[in-house]
Design brief:
Order of helices and strands: EHEHHEHEHEEEEEHHHHHHHHH
CATH class of the largest domain: Mainly Alpha
Structural class: alpha/beta
Helix content: 40-55%
CATH superfamily of the largest domain: Dehydroquinate synthase-like - alpha domain
Distance between the termini: 42 Å
Shape: globular
Number of strands: 9
Strand content: 5-15%
Bound molecules: fe (ii) ion
Length: 381
C-alpha cells in the first residue's frame, strides 16, 4: 500500500486563542496583512485578535474586502494592498473565502507571477511569505487544505493547488464560531460531512490516514450538528464541529472530493448559492445515485454515524443514506433547488457545467454522465 499524506505542520486548537494571536504569530511576522470580510468585522469577531496584534507590537494592515466565492478582481486588490503595506506575512481570518484569499496573497505578494498564471495544480513558483489561518466557521477546512477556489471575471471557478497553499499554522478557536446563525451552522456543517464522505469514498488517492480522519470527522460532525444548531452557545458542540471540520479538511486535502462538490459548484456560479448550502442540497441525491457503486464503503460509514443497520452491504448502505438525509433535514436546511431560485429551464446548463468539472467528477465512485447529472438536479428541484 503506497500513499502520500500532507498537512499543515502546526495546529493550535484552543478556545480563546484568538485573544493572544499577537503572541502566537510574532515570531513569524512583523507586518502582517490581516485578511477578512465585513461580516466578521461587523460581528466584532476580530476585535480581540487585532488588539493582541497591536499589543505584541505588530504593524498590521487590515484588508476587510473579501467577498464570498472570492472574485479574482478582489483577490488582486488584496494582493496590491498587502504589497503597499510591505507585508511580511498573511493572516486569514474568517470563512473559506477569507482563508482562500489569504493563501493566494501569501503566494503572490513577492512574486512576479500573475493570479492567472497560478491557476491549476502546482503552478505556484517559489516560496510564499508566512501564512496563519483562523476559521470562523466549521465547514470548509480551508485552514488545513492546499487549495484556494477563485471565481474568474467570466464566472468560472478556478482552483489554485500546491504545497505552498498549506499554511504554516492553523489556529482553531471555537469561540469564534459561537455567533454563527443556525442556517450557516447547518450548511457549513453539512459541507464538512460531505468532505468526510467524499474523502472516504474517493476513487483516487484513498488512503488509511485520510480514512481515519474522515471517520472521526463524520462521527464528531454527525453527532454534534443538531446541538450546535439548537444551542448556539454550546461550546462543546462548537468545539466538536470545528475539530470535525478540520479533520475532514485534512482528509479531503489528500483524498479529494467528488460529485457532490462538482454538482454544487454550478449552483454557486449561476445562483450564488453559498458553498455549504449547495453541497447540502446535492448530498442526498448523489448518495442515492452512488449507492450501487459505493455500498461497502457506505455500509462502513453507516456504522460510524450509528445507522444501526444489519443485513448485506446494500441494506446497510441504504440505511446510511437514510440516516444522513435525516440528520441533515433535522437541522432545517433547505432541501429543494426551487427554494434557492433555481428553475426547471436552467437545469441543462447546470448539468453541462457539472460534468465538465473533471477534477472532481473523476473521483466519484460512480461515473456521472450528462443525463445522470440532469436527473440528479431534477430530483431535488
Ligand atoms: Fe466543500
Amino acid at each position: 500500500m503506497n500513499f502520500n499524506f500532507d498537512t499543515v505542520p502546526n495546529i493550535i486548537f484552543e478556545t480563546g486563542a484568538a485573544s493572544r494571536l499577537g503572541e502566537i504569530v510574532k515570531e513569524r511576522m512583523q507586518r502582517p496583512c490581516v485578511v477578512t470580510d465585513k461580516g466578521v468585522i461587523g460581528a466584532g469577531l476580530i476585535d480581540r485578535a487585532l488588539k493582541s496584534l497591536k499589543a505584541a507590537g505588530l504593524d498590521y494592515h487590515l484588508f476587510d474586502g473579501v467577498e464570498a466565492d472570492p472574485p479574482a478582481k478582489v483577490v488582486k486588490g488584496a494582493i496590491e494592498a498587502a504589497r503597499v503595506h510591505k507585508a511580511d506575512g498573511v493572516i486569514g481570518f474568517g470563512g473559506g473565502s477569507s482563508m482562500d484569499t489569504a493563501k493566494v496573497i501569501a503566494c503572490l505578494i513577492n512574486s512576479s507571477q500573475t493570479l492567472e498564471e497560478i491557476y491549476g495544480m502546482d503552478q505556484v513558483r517559489g516560496a510564499r511569505v508566512p501564512l496563519v489561518l483562523l476559521p470562523t466557521t466549521s465547514g470548509t477546512g480551508s485552514e488545513v487544505t492546499n487549495i484556494s477556489v477563485i471565481t474568474t471575471d467570466d464566472d468560472q471557478k478556478m482552483g489554485v493547488l500546491g504545497p505552498q497553499l498549506y499554511a504554516d499554522l492553523a489556529v482553531l478557536d471555537a469561540s469564534l464560531t459561537l455567533s454563527m446563525p443556525r442556517h450557516v451552522t447547518s450548511a457549513t456543517g453539512i459541507d464538512a460531512m460531505v468532505h468526510a464522505i467524499e474523502a472516504y469514498t474517493t476513487k483516487f488517492k484513498k488512503n488509511p490516514v485520510s480514512d481515519a480522519l474522515a471517520t472521526k470527522a463524520l462521527k464528531l460532525l454527525s453527532s454534534n450538528i443538531q446541538a450546535a444548531c439548537d444551542t448556539p452557545d454550546d461550546i462543546e458542540a462548537r468545539e466538536a464541529m470545528l475539530l470535525g471540520a478540520m479533520l475532514a479538511g485534512q482528509a479531503f486535502a489528500n483524498a479529494p472530493c467528488a460529485a457532490v462538490h462538482a454538482m454544487a459548484y454550478p449552483l454557486g456560479v449561476h445562483f450564488h448559492v453559498p458553498h455549504g448550502l449547495a453541497n447540502a442540497l446535492m448530498l442526498a441525491p448523489v448518495l442515492r445515485f452512488n449507492t450501487p457503486a459505493a455500498a461497502p464503503l457506505y455500509a462502513e460509514l453507516g456504522d460510524v454515524i450509528g445507522a444501526n443497520a444489519t443485513g448485506d452491504f446494500e441494506a446497510r448502505a441504504e440505511s446510511f443514506v437514510a440516516k444522513m438525509t435525516e440528520i441533515c433535514a433535522a437541522t432545517g436546511v433547505k432541501s429543494r433547488l426551487s427554494e434557492v431560485g433555481v428553475s426547471h429551464n436552467v437545469l441543462p446548463k447546470l448539468a453541462e457545467d457539472a460534468v465538465k468539472i473533471e477534477r472532481l467528477m473523476k473521483n466519484n465512485p460512480r461515473p456521472v454522465a450528462y443525463d445522470d447529472a440532469l436527473a440528479l438536479y431534477t430530483e431535488v428541484l
